[in-house]
């Protein structure tokens, strides 16, 4: 028998539950690897269509609702950066997976009483949306001696259900980020309108890009655009996304309704 490449070996200390197997299939490592390759291919094609280098776009896999023991399979499939929406869920997984070298990102709204948890282990935060939060994060990071890459979330779809700054409030917000030396502003983030009509989705991405151009003129580090998910990442790449946050195309459909993550969420046509 051929020697197994260690990166191909199934995780040894894992036993998947019947529910895990029902949701992710009998060979999660194999299916995550295949899904990842398919997403990679779509990213590469979207880059080529837009005349962009493949290296200008980073894929951030979003692992919310995927149980820790299944994430061992994701790691075995070559995924080493995990994005989570909720801090409690992320912390539980991080505890369970402490033996793996994983880069954790938090991409969802953070309540101020959770700041101390985030500063302990997250490498990136994609949902900075208030000065109060910036101040608390900065203070906590100072305490633990770390810094944090942050993306400022903007509400580009004009929906009450979405978190993020109003576009008109962005530039004055960005002007104050220098007050928080532990925060490393990397760019802007948005959730586009949830719609299958790309003609309605695309303007959200275009707006974020315009805002980024204005913000970067005042804050040179703010060049990133974290935008695009399973349903719309190709459109986002066409509009300049530098980070796409993709969950379901890699891990399959989620059992929880999206309203769990976005209060008041309703699918817009
Ligand atoms: C869940 C989530 C995503 C990924 O959505 P998919 O439809 O699974 O690709 C992206 N960004 C945020 C903030 C999320 O919560």
TrEMBL record:
Annotated region (Disordered), positions in chain: 1-20
Keywords tagged on the record: Pyridoxal phosphate
Classification via SUPFAM superfamilies: PLP-binding barrel
Domain Alanine racemase N-terminal: 35-255
Residues found modified as N6-(pyridoxal phosphate)lysine: 64
Keyword Transcription regulation carried by entry: no
rRNA processing in keyword set: no
Transmembrane intervals: none
Function: Pyridoxal 5'-phosphate (PLP)-binding protein, which is involved in PLP homeostasis.
Family of the protein in this entry: Belongs to the pyridoxal phosphate-binding protein YggS/PROSC family.
Official protein name in the record: Pyridoxal phosphate homeostasis protein
């Amino acid at each position: 028998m051929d020697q197994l490449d260690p990166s191909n070996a199934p995780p040894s200390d894992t036993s998947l539950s019947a529910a895990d197997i029902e949701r992710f299939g009998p060979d999660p490592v194999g299916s995550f690897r295949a899904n990842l390759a398919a997403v990679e291919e779509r990213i590469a094609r979207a880059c080529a269509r837009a005349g962009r280098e493949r290296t200008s776009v980073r894929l951030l896999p979003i692992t919310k609702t995927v149980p820790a023991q299944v994430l061992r399979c994701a790691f075995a499939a070559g995924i080493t950066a995990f994005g989570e929406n909720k801090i409690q869920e992320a912390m539980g997984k991080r505890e369970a997976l402490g033996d793996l070298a994983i880069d954790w990102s938090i991409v969802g709204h953070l309540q101020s009483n959770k700041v101390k948890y985030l500063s302990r282990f997250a490498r990136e935060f994609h949902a900075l949306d208030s000065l109060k939060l910036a101040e608390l994060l900065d203070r906590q990071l100072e305490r633990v001696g770390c810094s944090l890459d942050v993306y400022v979330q903007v509400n580009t779809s004009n929906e009450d259900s979405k978190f993020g700054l109003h576009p008109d409030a962005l530039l004055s917000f960005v002007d104050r980020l220098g007050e928080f030396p532990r925060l490393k502003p990397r760019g802007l983030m948005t959730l586009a309108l949830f719609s299958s009509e790309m003609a309605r989705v695309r303007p959200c991405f275009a707006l974020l890009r315009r805002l980024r151009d204005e913000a970067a003129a005042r804050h040179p580090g703010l060049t990133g655009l974290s935008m695009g998910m399973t349903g719309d990442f190709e459109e986002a790449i066409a509009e300049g996304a530098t980070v796409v946050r993709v969950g379901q195309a890699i891990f399959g459909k989620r059992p929880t309704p999206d309203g769990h993550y976005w209060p008041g969420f309703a699918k817009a046509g």
